[in-house]
Design a protein that fits this description.
By secondary structure, this protein is an alpha+beta fold. Among the domains are: 8-82, Immunoglobulin-like; 87-118. 20% of the residues lie in helices and 27% in strands. It has one helix and six strands; from the N terminus they run E-E-E-E-E-E-H. Strand 2 and strand 3 form a beta hairpin. It starts with 7 loop residues before the first strand and ends in a 35-residue tail after the last helix.
Length: 153
């Protein structure tokens, strides 16, 4: 759908049923419906077709009129709607940057909270110390006898 402020490409082809091929020119008029202001272009043939671009400056219904003379004057009209621009051009980029900045800030905040709550660096795992083996027998405990030597000696 055409949008306010965005260029609209128009490509026209005029053919003949008999006689020489039509070489132009074409006159194309583009204007808001009911408005006296209009954009008019006279086009010459570019290859097989005629091409031009218009940029609507306001939303609403618009008229496109194509006029040319073959054996007699012919006028073709088309009416279409132009949608309003959802955002100014720069505003879209501003919203993308704000969204990316917010995502980055929230991500950093989450990482910092994890670091603070674990008390260590991110990714480090805490392992409990191994149980300490008794080095000397305590008073009142019975020492265990050494294992029997292997038989056959």
């Amino acid at each position: 759908m055409p949008t306010e402020g965005e260029p609209i490409s128009v490509s026209l082809h005029v053919g003949n049923f008999e006689g020489p091929e039509f070489d132009g020119p074409l006159t194309v008029t583009f204007h808001p419906t009911g408005s006296p202001s209009q954009q008019t272009k006279t086009l010459t043939r570019d290859g097989v077709n005629w091409h031009t671009q218009f940029t609507p400056d306001q939303p609403g219904p618009w008229d496109l009129e194509v006029r040319y003379r073959g054996t007699h004057l012919k006028v073709i009209t088309a009416r279409f709607s132009v949608a309003s621009s959802p955002l100014p051009r720069g505003m879209g980029w501003v919203l993308i940057l704000v969204g990316a900045g917010t995502a980055l800030a929230l991500g950093l905040r989450n990482v910092l909270r994890r670091v603070k709550s674990s008390g260590s660096t991110p990714g480090a795992t805490e392992t409990p110390p191994p149980p300490a083996a008794p080095s000397t027998p305590e008073a009142g405990s019975v020492p265990t006898p050494p294992a029997d030597p292997p038989s056959g000696q």
